């Protein structure tokens, strides 16, 4: 088999194709390669397989949908599964977030949220509100809007930032918060930077503030205690919308349906994807409060929002998501983190603080990161540990100087123990 035709995403293509790793099957917590090597998945794929791999109920629901209704456009047509799914999702959502717009990914969900924010302000006669305030080290997908508001330079260096965007400082503070368990105790004052940006740009020009409740790809950065509440307060003071990117933190990863519920801070909009279908099929969603929906929909006759996707609310994706919701609810997975496995995971990763050159370990729920000292030359230690872990049959994610962990919510204590043993073995090959 030739490998050249496939241009792989976020991959060193030349290196991969010289020594490819081709997965053949998956089940529960594990993948298996064509050569028969098994990998313990401590990343839930890309933060998404919350239910574990290859759930039979989800596969059967997708198959039955494909047989009966393989496709119907959502432009002026509908199907029952999409409306049922929307009702179920908003029932779990906090406050008066009672509307959902379906997309095909987290990237599309963020771009949708940005457009809805601008449409809302335009409907109010404030079409000058076009600036978005995001945050350093943020990841909001790779479409044009998400790339623009994102705060990871590698993702925007070659593409520029389309639109008016400014960034809050990130909340990572090694000097004061290293080895925090849960939310860092210090750093709420970092939210005051939003007041400075409002003064700089003018509230009348700002559409929304966009943040991840816990920064994911930027290194798993839990917010300081009170930080998100302060952002909410400042946004309310200036009539600025607050958007949470919950693509990583949604569907039980923090111990609640959303991080906004977990942290008791209700945004005006939030986005999701990944755990929505547990990675079985692409799907995303943008949620909004009643006042946003009512303002936009009430502003025009006919089509109120000139936006959508060919595959919005695809029948097979909706079938998968409904089946996933069944499993989440039947197995109490939205809150399983709080049953003891979250604490076991926390203790396990902090037990690795004795590894050489570890400068920080941080975690919340079933999210964690181990950060190593920067290297003056060669690959960062996070990237090197990723490669050595693969040799041990362990999948972690390398992110610069850190390794990132986001295991499926079905993880058991023996899996955590296996992870610790294999990571220590991988580290011994380096240090």
UniProtKB/TrEMBL annotation:
<dbReference type="Pfam" id="PF00202">
    <property type="entry name" value="Aminotran_3"/>
</dbReference>
<dbReference type="InterPro" id="IPR015421">
    <property type="entry name" value="PyrdxlP-dep_Trfase_major"/>
</dbReference>
<dbReference type="InterPro" id="IPR005814">
    <property type="entry name" value="Aminotrans_3"/>
</dbReference>
<protein>
    <submittedName>
        <fullName>Aminotransferase class III-fold pyridoxal phosphate-dependent enzyme</fullName>
    </submittedName>
</protein>
<keyword id="KW-0032">Aminotransferase</keyword>
<comment type="similarity">
    <text>Belongs to the class-III pyridoxal-phosphate-dependent aminotransferase family.</text>
</comment>
<keyword id="KW-0808">Transferase</keyword>
<dbReference type="InterPro" id="IPR049704">
    <property type="entry name" value="Aminotrans_3_PPA_site"/>
</dbReference>
<dbReference type="InterPro" id="IPR015422">
    <property type="entry name" value="PyrdxlP-dep_Trfase_small"/>
</dbReference>
<dbReference type="GO" id="GO:0009102">
    <property type="term" value="P:biotin biosynthetic process"/>
</dbReference>
<dbReference type="GO" id="GO:0030170">
    <property type="term" value="F:pyridoxal phosphate binding"/>
</dbReference>
<keyword id="KW-0663">Pyridoxal phosphate</keyword>
<dbReference type="InterPro" id="IPR015424">
    <property type="entry name" value="PyrdxlP-dep_Trfase"/>
</dbReference>
<dbReference type="GO" id="GO:0004015">
    <property type="term" value="F:adenosylmethionine-8-amino-7-oxononanoate transaminase activity"/>
</dbReference>
